[in-house]
Specification:
With 157 residues, the chain is an alpha+beta fold. It is 34% helix and 25% strand. The longest helix is centred in the middle third of the chain and has 15 residues.
Length: 157
């Protein structure tokens, strides 16, 4: 049985396990730097930076969806879905859709005009899933990032 709920402190060790599982799936096994303490600090309390939903199947956390508020100069309030993670064994069983639906309901309850996320161009299963839900995959946009080393170099530190 699938159950979706908001993460609590005790869930964050499992949340981090799933984040690491995603990093392996995305061919970046050494990229995860976030800690359980950071997840707790920024995902709980009155001034949290993100909302994390956990997806349980028969009482075991088998997926997460992590999202946070953004502001668009064109649309105003929006929600960014950072990651939707489902264990390999649970893919295709409805858990991902249940988590996705929860994020969209959360976004609607926040009165946003847009929900956005990034999907890897080689993850055709995810692309198909999102397109089938009515989402538009924007072509011609590049994701830009600057890590700590590049930031320090740019700022001359």
């Amino acid at each position: 049985m699938i159950h979706i709920r908001t993460a609590v402190k005790e869930d964050f060790p499992r949340v981090l396990e799933l984040i690491n599982e995603l990093a392996i799936f995305e061919k970046e096994p050494d990229a995860v730097e976030v800690t359980i303490q950071e997840l707790e600090e920024h995902g709980l309390g009155d001034h949290k930076l993100f909302t994390c939903f956990v997806g349980e199947y028969n009482g075991v956390i088998e997926g997460i969806a992590l999202c946070y508020p953004r502001f668009s100069t064109w649309k105003g309030k929006s929600i960014h879905l950072e990651d939707l993670i489902v264990t390999q064994e649970m893919r295709g069983k409805g858990l991902g859709k249940a988590l996705y639906d929860q994020v969209l309901k959360h976004a609607q309850s926040q009165g946003v005009r847009r929900v956005e996320w990034v999907v890897l161009d080689w993850n055709q299963n995810a692309i198909d899933f999102y397109e089938n839900s009515g989402a538009t995959i924007l072509k011609g946009w590049y994701l830009a990032q600057m890590d700590n080393a590049a930031l320090a170099k740019y700022l001359g530190e």
